[in-house]
## 1
Amino acid sequence: MSETSARARAAIIPVTALQQNCTLLWCETTRRAVVFDPGGDVPNIRAAIDEAGVTVEQIWITHGHFDHVGGADELREALGVPIVGPHIADKFLLDHVVDSAATFGFSGMRNVTPDRWLTEGETLTLGELTFQILHCPGHSPGSVVFFNPQMRFAVVGDVLFNGSVGRTDLPGGSHAALLQSITEKLLPLGDDVGFICGHGPGSTFGDERRTNPFLAGAA
């Protein structure tokens, strides 16, 4: 467990052999929670929910790659909560989760139909917390970032990493679009914004602007 502010806490549950950062995040005041990107290993995710003693209200998805969504339908079924996100541009990925997972040797995953798609400029609430939605294509066409201005905190999926950026050699990827998303939408939010990414340790936008080799020269 790691405290992100006086009002929110988060637990990261690495899932699948790809060690994707499934994140359980909750409002401290209300104990209401969301699960970001349940890519698999659903029993482990449910155990983390039980350990935290929180009530999960929704599942929020950053993008449609199988390691981020492979367990989403199973978790929705178990908890009776809706799946929200990503942007509809990732529908082609969500419709073929089983096939794409099999290509990489993974089984037991399900295709996903979200209960709600997300678009640029929308807001989502979790207890007393509010998250702004930014559509950040490049890693995938429908990638979204969840930004909480009160906590100066974001969940960015595979758009940006500590010392790297998301791969763009998968269907629908675009390196130029990814760098545009990062430099025009994320970095302007402020150097002090911390983030959880889809794999590996998090960072801040300022540290990445200064040291990330893929962002050399970013304002």
Note: The mean pLDDT is 95.
## 2
Amino acid sequence: MSLDAPRTEPRPERPTADEARLRLEHARATRMTQLRALDESGQADDQLMAAQQAAIERVLKEIDEAFARVEEGTYGACRGCGKPVPGERLEILPYTRYCVACQRRTAGAG
């Protein structure tokens, strides 16, 4: 091993409950900031703004559901296949319910 190579510790597949809560709290705060910005824009009657608001509210609901999964101990398990959702996916979308393969199947079914 080269002395110049960075040392990285392998990361656990699933985040701890505390890590999950922190990520979810950050995601919630970000979405709440987005909602406030939309409200303050004064264009709530605009169809595009209304669609954006609805999308943000859907994500907030998904975040609340993810908090419930943390409390249940099922956070990080795919709702489709039951396998662990990769940690990288949970970092990007901490409220996701599905692994990529199951998300594609779910999106294709709808």
Note: Residues 12 and 55 are 31 Å apart (CA to CA).
